[in-house]
Amino acid sequence: MFARENKLTAWHLGVAMIALFIGGFFGPLQKLEYVGVNLYSTLNKIGIASYYQGLTLHAVLNALVWTTFFIVGFFTFTITRSLNKELTMPKLNAVGLITMIIGLIMAAIPILMNLATVLFTFYPPMKANPFFYIGLVLVVVGSWICGWGFYLTYFAWRKENPGVQTPIIALGSLITMVLWQIATLGVATELLVMVIPWSFGLVEGIDPQLARTFFWFTGHPLVYFWLLPAYVSWYGMMPKQAGGKLFSEPLARLVFWLFLALSVPVGLHHQYLDPGVPAGWKFLHGLLTYSLFLPSMLTAFNVVASLEIGGRNNGGTGLLGWVRALPWGDPSYAAQNLAMILFVFGGIGGLTNSSYNLNLVIHNTSWVPGHFHLTVGSAVTLTFFGILYWLVPKLSGKPLWNRKVALVQAWTWFAGMLLMGNGLHILGLNFGVPRRTMVGVAAYASDAWNPMLIEAAIGGIILGISGLLFYSNMIGTVLSKKRLEAPIEMPVAEAYDEHPAPAWLDNWKPWLAITVVLIVVAYGPILFDMIANANMTSPGFKVW
Amino acid sequence: MEKKKYKVPQGTVAIMIIFILLIIALWGSAYLTMLSRGVTITP
Asked: Does ipTM come in above 0.95?
């Protein structure tokens, strides 16, 4: 049972890890450039033309490809195992995977040929080769197809199990997939209706403001598409790994529904600096952004309480003595717990970003990459590493190559990210050091920046070493000749309270209705106005 | 079914208090840094 699902999962994870390896390679180079070590001239020989081409590879492969492939693969595993049901149409999911891979290759070729050095946000009027955009569309469409395969499986399970509550791991995974499919309608519209016809020369101009608005319709919920799979593990699996139980399952369900409803209608807080967006709409989106604080804090409480149960079950006593009794020697657990700690700082930075006047100060500075390296680069990626420390042995049937190396990897990632994150935040906030910029050659660079540039560079180098440790373990595991002595099963946390959650927390209709209403209220009038007054006049620019 | 008695997760409550204080401190620090860098006054 589950042989096809395992194979599909392994393919997704394999592509994800290859993408992260290539994309991650450029990370330490960027930080070395900060301190005057410019290795890009060397990379010219292998076809990397500039810092900005490397930055595009880093961002697209890490933030879009690593995450999307990992998440779809992980959900292929979690949904089928949690429902204890094989995919009803595995060929559909295979078609989805193939579509994603074709899209990835199609998008990667223009980037590698320096025809799409438009960074992760690909803001018009920067204009890339059309196949870059088509490739991105195919990656997204492929992930949708995989999502449809999940829904069909869920519908079939529901028919066979009337009245049975959806297991929390499957529910969280499915909600995340629905969130993704709603959210990506924005970027799909931007690419299909505006950018691709423009990049082919079928229309002369584009409206950058409207394109950015469609982008950020997707861009903020994208953060939760990255984050919620980590929550699936934190809620559904980690309490079991810690020896505890999920403190409140109903609260966990509520959190996933709240993220579905609240993630999308907040995108304009990424456009506080856009002059074409009226202040009233920025205010509304700012308010809605703060509403995301609620499910975030509920998660902090519920997950820590679940771990406290584990720590106390393991013999921990006192107010905080149970923390030491958590299974810190298990690399899968340690990586995820360290990811949570880093996310504390990422979350606080997020609150700052959504504060209007503070955002105006830090928006175009290195504060922002500092922030998202603590979220997607830490809370998400380090959690995914922790998951892979049990999932790759599970799929390969081989024990993890070296647990100590895995532990060192988790801790070095933690330390490296703390240093780099701190350096980038301070550089942005205190000195206004710009992001998306080759700082090492900037004529306006100040000596006062040096201590934090050095700190960020040390952090980047440690992260590079940590990345190599991760890959040595993954390759060592897959190539190992040892076999598992006992099969590994997906860790599934039991609920602390065996009472079932209220029925309204297992009912899609009201939550989907609330989601649609909030999106219509928050985006309907402003999008209608922007579309009615669209200025499709800007030509394309190749600035690289 | 008899309702289960929850033990108050006291350690978690302590950690949440620390977390909230950290939010106030770090957000406040960013805010004060912003002010220290000067403000724009519209006449």
From this structure: no
